Amino acid sequence: MRVYVDQDLCISCGLCIDTAPAVFQWNDDEKAEAVEEEVPSHVEEDAREALENCPTDAIKEMER
Ligand code: SF4
């Protein structure tokens, strides 16, 4: 699974970082970003939960 955060949609609510701290982090613009594009398999479930719960659908899964 590969993810990124659409910076125009992120409202900095922090939910994804609470849900999946190994996958998402704050960037210098105080928006969320993926720590790494490629999500490590052991935290993929957390990443997917964060993706599904993002209030603005800012978290996108990249096509393979
Ligand atoms: S859950 Fe969505 S809106 Fe909230 S910080 Fe994460 S990417 Fe941004």
Topology diagram in text:
Layout: E1 3-5, H1 15-19, E2 24-26, E3 32-34, H2 44-53, E4 59-61
Antiparallel strand pairs: 1-4, 2-3
Bound molecules: iron/sulfur cluster.
Tell me the radius of gyration. 10 Å
- The secondary structure category is alpha+beta
**Overall tally of domains:** 1
Q: Supply the CATH class.
A: Alpha Beta
Q: What ions, cofactors and ligands are bound? A: iron/sulfur cluster
Largest sheet: 2 strands, antiparallel
The fold-level CATH name is Alpha-Beta Plaits
Secondary structure tally, helices: 2
Q: Low-confidence stretches at least 5 residues in length (pLDDT < 50)? A: none
Number of E-type strands: 4
Q: What is the molecular shape?
A: globular
Averaged pLDDT: 97
Distance between the termini: 8 Å
Strand order of the largest sheet: 1-4
Q: What is the correct CATH architecture? A: 2-Layer Sandwich
Question: Considering DSSP H and I runs of 4 or more, what fraction of the residues is helical?
Answer: 10-25%
